[in-house]
Amino acid sequence: MKDQVTDIFFDLDHTLWDFEKNSALTFNKILSEYGVAVSLDDFLASYRPINMKYWKLYREERIIKEKLRYGRLKETFDELDYKIDDDLIYILSDKYIQHLPGFNHLFKEAIPILDYLKPSYNLHIITNGFAEVQIGKLHNSKISDYFIHVINSESVGVKKPNPKIFEHALEMANVLASQAVMIGDNYEADVLGAKSVGMHTIHFNVHNDAVNDQDVKIANLLEIKHYL
Predict the structure, then answer these.
(1) Which GO molecular-function terms appear in the entry (predicted)?
(2) Can you give the residue ranges of every domain in the chain?
C-alpha cells in the first residue's frame, strides 16, 4: 500500500474526532442548562445505540436530517420514561448541534499520526456529518490545516457508503482509486463504500466489530505507520 498511495481520505467522527467524549460533554451542558432531570449516564446508555440506529437509517436515505435530530432524542426520553414536550426536544436538538463543535477532544494519537502522514501524502476528509457542524469541529480542534479537501455528504447529495461520494472525492483530489486509501471506523460506510470504487482501506476498528479478517484493521491510529 505504501508504494501505491498518494492520497489519504479520513473519516472524522469516531476516527480522528472523539465523538463519544465530545457528545457526552455537550449533553452534560445542555441537559443541565435546560433543567432536564435525568442521569447523564442513564441518558447516554440509552442514547448511544439509538443514535447509531438513526444514523444507519440516515445513511440509507430512509430518514431526513430533521427526523434524525428529533427522533433520536424523542426515542431516548421515551425509553427513559421521562416526560418532555416536543418544543423542548426541538430546542435541545438545536442546542446540541450548536454546542457540539465547541468541544474539541481528538483521539490522543490523531495529531501524531497526522504529523507523520502530512509530509508524504495529500490528506482529505470524507464525512457524513452535518456540514455546519463538521467545519466547526475541524477548526476548533485545530486540524483543518492538515486537509486539502473536506467532502461532506450534504454538499455531494449522497452519503457513505454510496459510491458516488467516493467518486466525487477522488475527482476533487484528482487521484485514481488505486492511489487512494480510506481510513474510518464504520465498516459499512467507510470500508465497504470505499472498496466498491477500488480504493484501499484501513478499518479503525474502535467499536470492536466482527468483520472480514482479510481487511486491514487497526485498533490504534499509530498502527497506520505499518501500512503507510
Answers:
(1) 5'-nucleotidase activity
(2) 7-17+105-226, 19-102
Q: Which helix (H) or strand (E) holds 46?
A: helix 40-59
Domain covering 19-102, topology: DNA polymerase; domain 1 (1.10.150)
The pTM is what? 0.94
Top CATH class of 7-17+105-226 equals alpha beta
Q: CB of 200 within 8 A of CB of 4? A: yes
* Residue pLDDT, tens place only, 154-198: 989 999 999 999 999 999 999 999 999 999 999 999 999 999 999
Cβ within 8 Å of residue 67, ≥6 positions away: 54
Residues 6+ apart with CB under 8 A from 167: 197
Report d(CA 109, CA 167) in Å as an integer. Answer: 29
